[in-house]
Amino acid sequence: MSASKKEYKRITVKSLTEMKSQGEKIAMLTAYDYTMATIVDRAGIDVILVGDSASNVMAGHETTLPITLDQMIYHASSVVRAIKRALVVVDLPFGSYQSDPKEALRSAIRIMKESGGHAVKLEGGTEIKESVKRILHAGIPVMGHLGLTPQSIYKFGTYTVRAKEEQEAEKLKQDALLLERLGCFAVVLEKVPNQLAREVAESLTIPVIGIGAGNGVDGQVLVMHDMLGMSQEFSPRFLRRYLDMHTQMTGAFEQYITDVKSLDFPNDEEQY
Ligand SMILES: Nc1nc(=O)c2c([nH]1)NC[C@@H]1CN(c3ccc(C(=O)N[C@@H](CCC(=O)O)C(=O)O)cc3)CN21
Ligand SMILES: CC(C)C(=O)C(=O)O
Ligand SMILES: [Mg+2]
């Protein structure tokens, strides 16, 4: 195989379970557009999440609630056009699945049909059992999401660590088992104690992907713009910044502005 014709081994929902059984951790990041998705796919990411965090990161909303199904499909289709290798999971946005299981299935079908994504993610446990079942019956892979579920932010009021109390921890364990029994291929655990997340990961055969859930789980997910250091306001303890893109980009923009104003740009080689 020549270098220019590099072959990519596509990640499937099955490869994730195999990775868990072989002890290989799963690396997942969000992406919302073609250019960023191309870069993260070629870097070798396992799973790309087209998160409803696009509502915050792309559109500047305070919460994930306003983003629509059409907007999620727009982001997801851009990401799908970029990928050669990663599994693409798409968040079902708030309001597209909570009313009834038929609506949930219709929304999931729209995502699969109109974006070309490979799976959908829904927030919640036993409350959305019937919706998860229906989507799975249609042959659409489902990823669960428990713990801090941002679409329910107004029910909780804060983004604090979830399931610190025994009762809530017990419900989370039951919900995780339920999602596995229903046939979900993986579960995201967001902002829960390390020990609880570890127990859940050990009790399931499907992979548990953590965000702020410690190192006892089967993989990690972060919002791409957070790990690149593009945002300065969002700074939870669980976030590791791999670049200081905010500073670097600001420097580049300032230099460009200076160059334009000083007539340094464009120079003789940069014009016709
Ligand atoms: N940019 C971005 N990154 C994310 O990880 C993300 C989003 N947006 N939007 C949707 C959800 C919301 N998420 C969140 C939101 C807040 C915290 C958090 O820890 N916030 C505060 C602490 C709040 C508190 O303790 O009351 C912090 O330390 O920044 C964590 C995950 C994760 N998701
Ligand atoms: C933070 C992850 C898990 C997510 O759901 C999102 O980015 O929308
Ligand atoms: Mg989300």
From TrEMBL:
One cellular component term from this protein's GO annotations in UniProt: cytoplasm
Location of this chain's protein in the cell: Cytoplasm
Annotated residues for binding of Mg(2+): D52, D91, E123
Location of the active site: E190 (proton acceptor)
Name this protein carries in UniProt: 3-methyl-2-oxobutanoate hydroxymethyltransferase
Keywords, comma-separated and alphabetical: Cytoplasm, Magnesium, Metal-binding, Methyltransferase, Pantothenate biosynthesis, Transferase
NCBIfam families: panB, PRK00311.1
InterPro entries (UniProt xref): Pantoate_hydroxy_MeTrfase (IPR003700), Pyrv/PenolPyrv_kinase-like_dom (IPR015813), Pyrv_kinase-like_dom_sf (IPR040442)
Annotated source species: Leeuwenhoekiella aequorea
Subunit organization: Homodecamer; pentamer of dimers.
Principal EC category: transferase
Catalytic activity, EC: 2.1.2.11
Lineage, highest ranks first: Bacteria, Pseudomonadati, Bacteroidota, Flavobacteriia, Flavobacteriales
Task performed by this protein: Catalyzes the reversible reaction in which hydroxymethyl group from 5,10-methylenetetrahydrofolate is transferred onto alpha-ketoisovalerate to form ketopantoate.
Residues annotated for 3-methyl-2-oxobutanoate binding in this entry: D52, S53, D91, K121
Pathway the protein takes part in: Cofactor biosynthesis; (R)-pantothenate biosynthesis; (R)-pantoate from 3-methyl-2-oxobutanoate: step 1/2
Major subcellular location class: cytoplasm
Top-level lineage group: Bacteria
